[in-house]
Write a structure and sequence with these properties.
Elements lengths: L3 H5 L24 E7 L11 H7 L19 E3 L26 E5 L15 H4 L9 H10 L7 E5 L6 E9 L2 E6 L2 H13 L1 H25 L4 H26 L1 H4 L11 H4 L7 H17 L5 E6 L17 H6 L6 H24 L14 E6 L15 E4 L11 E4 L11 H11 L27
Parallel strand pairs: 1-7, 1-8, 3-10, 4-7
Antiparallel strand pairs: 2-10, 3-9, 5-6, 8-9
Helix pairs in contact: 5-6, 6-7, 10-12
Length: 465
């Protein structure tokens, strides 16, 4: 294993949080982290289906169909010791060229439904909230306070988008009608995080002075305010946000000497960004965002991360080595030529980024507990809308990596739950219940807003125990 100092060298380190969601909550007893990785606009079950599970299911699973619910059993099918890397998009989990095997530290879940989310091109916040889009907080916002443990940032939210903006608001939420921003420009993420470090002491002093001036003006306005209670509450929240920003600025300044030696080259010199093309290659930009997230986790800057590719604009472009057609047309022409293989390759490359992160965490000893950082980190790879381009939300394939020390049965198993309309089907909310239990909250049984359509509360016994 390597020290954090060794692993951090040369990696991008940074994060940006447009919103602050400080909630007083009991921290987890042991170090714990959550990383949610979303391939927006569909992850197909076929992409995560191993050859062994395909044979065990039989029926339509043995055809070329990308959806094969009719082959699912009436009770959960659990296949331990499955060769997950035999799936078309899970090859990066396999041991190769000195890279550790991640198959026996992973699990694949098929059959989980999330009908309340609505499907379509995107379910918005529904994928992470198990609620109608915009109706509730997403799981990252709910769990982050328990995991924060004094880190400067509660959640790091990064991604890519076909929208020509730098921050988008579709995938995550702090609560009903309270979207949480995701920064989709890696250069802005870098600059926003390290502005006080890159420019030296003068720039850092200027940033603090700006906060101090804004705070002084806001506090004065609050003291003299004579408006109604609702308007006063808005001003109080604004002052509180500025105070949080100022406090975090001091905290990051205190970490500067430790972080500064490991800053990578500036974004203008990063080949992932300078060579991304126009429109940018989403895979390259996403890799740059992974670099930022990886370093943030290693540096203890956050313990909760969301990485979403194609958020708030799923029609992202790829490089010529993958496809000269953007995602929307690629999906609509799925049965033409090699388009299905290209979509599966995109998923494979996203899994490769997950594997890179997992191997880095596996090579880093945990501080304050036994094992590696990966043992104390749950990485979930999923989609924001379910099982296909025009999703029905009937299935949400998942890859889970790490978290063994948290009680997750990521031991190389595939679990196939009965299909969406079967009595023993289980839902995405059950997976999020599982994470809550793994992070130390034994009462985290009812997350989600399925109401009467909730099949069963609590965690997935096939994944946790």
């Amino acid at each position: 294993m390597f020290s954090r100092r060794t692993v951090l060298t040369g990696m991008a380190a940074g994060l940006f949080a447009p919103y602050f969601h400080d909630v007083y909550a009991q921290s987890s007893a042991l170090p714990a982290r959550l990383v949610l990785v979303l391939e927006c606009n569909g992850v197909y079950p076929r992409a995560l289906l191993s050859t062994g599970t395909r044979a065990a299911l039989g029926g339509r699973a043995n055809t070329s169909d990308r959806l094969f619910w009719d082959a699912y059993k009436d009770t959960p099918l659990v296949r331990e010791g499955d060769n997950l890397a035999s799936a078309i998009s899970l090859g990066p989990l396999a041991e190769s060229a000195g890279k550790i095997d991640l198959v026996n530290r992973s699990a694949v879940l098929l059959g989980l439904s999330n009908l309340i989310a609505g499907g379509g091109h995107s379910s918005g916040t529904g994928g992470l909230s198990c609620a109608v889009n915009g109706a509730g907080a997403t799981v990252d916002a709910v769990i982050a306070p328990r995991l924060r443990r004094g880190a400067p940032f509660d959640v790091l939210r990064l991604g890519t988008s076909s929208a020509r903006v730098s921050i988008v608001y579709e995938t995550c939420a702090l609560g009903p009608r309270k979207p949480a921003g995701i920064i989709v420009n890696p250069s802005l993420a870098f600059d926003s995080t390290f502005g006080s470090l890159l420019g030296g002491s003068t720039n850092g002093r200027d940033r603090k002075m700006l906060f101090d001036f804004a705070l002084a003006d806001s506090r004065k306005a609050l003291a003299e305010f004579k408006g109604n209670s609702n308007e006063r509450l808005k001003l109080e929240r604004y002052v509180s946000s500025l105070e949080s920003l100022r406090t975090r600025e001091d905290q990051l300044t205190g970490m500067a000497d430790r972080v500064r030696p490991y800053l990578p080259v500036a974004p203008k010199d990063n080949p992932l960004l300078t060579g991304a093309g126009s429109p940018p290659d989403s895979l390259k930009w996403f890799e740059a965002q992974f670099q930022i997230a990886t370093a943030a986790l290693l540096g203890g800057l956050t313990n909760t991360v969301v990485l979403a590719t194609g958020t708030s604009g799923f029609d992202v472009a790829y490089g010529p080595d993958v496809s000269d057609v953007a995602r929307h047309n690629l999906q609509h022409g799925l049965d033409a030529g090699q388009n299905w293989e290209k979509v599966a390759e995109v998923t494979r490359r996203h899994v490769q980024l997950v594997a890179n992160l997992a191997r880095t965490l596996a090579a880093t000893p945990e501080v304050g507990a036994s094992g590696s950082m990966l043992d104390h980190t749950a990485i979930i790879f999923m989609s924001d809308n379910g099982e296909q381009h025009h999703s029905t939300s009937r299935e949400w394939p998942k890859l889970v990596v790490g978290g063994n020390a948290l009680g997750l049965k990521t031991d190389g198993r595939t679990v196939v739950y009965p299909k969406y309309d079967a009595p023993r089907n289980r839902q995405v909310s059950n997976l999020f219940n599982t994470l809550g239990h793994a992070f130390g909250d034994a009462d985290f049984n009812t997350f989600g807003q399925e109401g009467s359509t909730r099949i069963a509360p609590g965690p997935l016994s096939e994944l946790y125990g």
